[in-house]
């Protein structure tokens, strides 16, 4: 990883009428990093991305992308960055191959690269299919191929997996990982917590136009010091044992039971595990630490809604 950041932003602002869409965003994205802007709908992720892509002028603040100002539209940057357009922006009545070839031509890239890219994104057999006939996942792959056809160092992706079924999302995650493993810096926006957690080296958690926290997903979760939830099937402990445990662990462990589950919530799981082991109640045990959902709740005081 090079020491020069791929992107820096300082105090970015953007207002649309009464809406302050971006409200003082500062960030630094390292070269080679897989970076996520994470937040609920309307958090200002797309607007921030568009400023970094050079598609929108900020009202205030300063951005540098690969050492260059992205605005006004900077011709030195265009060959070095890839911007994934929404699938709906495809030209009408073109096949997947023709669509990609049109992008390749814009960048002066030859036809061999078009075939390579089709294969690379798993569309090798669909080159002759009309873009409008592709499935949601295939269309996303084609739009990613269009963003990559000129081999950019830095790729911007705006909610690349929105609307896809779980299998298609997983397949696309594999592709995105490969793109990053090639050495490219990847910046994506997402409102999916699991996606951010699984893919991103670091995320910026956004809400109401501001970045609330930036860090590696695991580090953000750890810093929260959220309790561990240990769950076993309801009835795993006899009522007498449970009553005794409640008395003994009072103040250290919160114990709740409904018809389905017996749940222990604690920052000190050892005595709970010892108790369950002693009573042969480990069958079906699940343990879960905090998640980015807890981080969001902690930062905003409200539940995260995708
Ligand atoms: N062109 C525009 N004109 C007016 N308001 C806009 C425009 N674009 C975005 N907004 C508003 O600015 C705010 C931030 O929008 P933005 O699209 O950046 O958020 P987002 O986090 O990407 O959300 P989403 O996932 O819904 O796209 C929202 O309140 C949105 O309604």
Automatic annotation (TrEMBL):
Gene3D superfamilies: P-loop containing nucleotide triphosphate hydrolases. It is an enzyme of class 7 (translocase). One of its GO terms (cellular component) is plasma membrane. One of its GO terms (molecular function) is ATP binding. CDD domains: ABC_DR_subfamily_A. Signal peptide: none annotated. Its EC number is 7.6.2.2. Keywords: Antibiotic resistance, ATP-binding, Cell membrane, Membrane, Nucleotide-binding, Translocase, Transport. InterPro entries: AAA+_ATPase (IPR003593), ABC_transporter-like_ATP-bd (IPR003439), ABC_transporter-like_CS (IPR017871), ABC_transporter_ATP-binding (IPR050763), P-loop_NTPase (IPR027417). Its main location: membrane. It holds the Pfam family ABC_tran. The keyword Cell membrane applies. This is ABC-type xenobiotic transporter. The lineage of its organism: Bacteria, Bacillati, Actinomycetota, Actinomycetes, Kitasatosporales.
């Amino acid at each position: 990883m090079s020491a020069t950041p791929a992107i820096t932003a300082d105090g970015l602002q953007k207002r649309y009428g009464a809406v302050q869409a971006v409200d003082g965003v500062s960030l630094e994205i390292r070269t080679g990093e897989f970076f996520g802007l994470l937040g609920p709908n309307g958090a200002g992720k797309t607007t921030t991305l568009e400023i970094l892509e050079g598609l929108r002028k900020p009202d205030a603040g300063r951005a540098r992308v690969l050492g260059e100002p992205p605005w006004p539209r900077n011709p030195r940057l265009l060959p070095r960055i890839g911007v994934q357009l929404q699938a709906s922006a495809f030209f009408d009545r073109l096949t997947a191959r023709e669509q990609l070839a049109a992008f390749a031509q814009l960048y002066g890239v030859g036809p061999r690269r078009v075939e390579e890219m089709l294969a690379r994104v798993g569309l090798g057999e669909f080159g002759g299919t009309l873009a409008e006939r592709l499935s949601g996942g295939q269309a996303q792959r084609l739009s990613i191929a269009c963003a990559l056809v000129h081999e950019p160092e830095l790729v911007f992706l705006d909610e690349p997996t929105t609307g896809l079924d779980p299998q298609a999302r997983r397949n696309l995650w594999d592709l995105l990982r490969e793109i990053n493993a090639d050495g490219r810096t990847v910046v994506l926006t997402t409102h999916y917590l699991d996606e951010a957690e699984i893919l991103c080296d670091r995320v910026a958690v956004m809400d109401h136009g501001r970045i609330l926290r930036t860090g590696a997903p695991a580090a953000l979760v750890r810093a929260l010091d959220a309790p561990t939830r240990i769950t076993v099937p309801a009835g795993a402990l006899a009522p007498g044992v449970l009553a005794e445990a409640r008395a003994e662990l009072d103040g250290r462990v919160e114990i709740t039971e409904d018809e389905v589950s017996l749940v222990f919530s604690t920052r000190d799981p050892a005595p709970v595990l010892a108790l369950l082991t002693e009573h042969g109640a480990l069958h079906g045990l699940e343990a879960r630490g905090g998640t980015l959902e807890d981080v969001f709740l902690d930062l905003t005081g409200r539940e995260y809604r995708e």
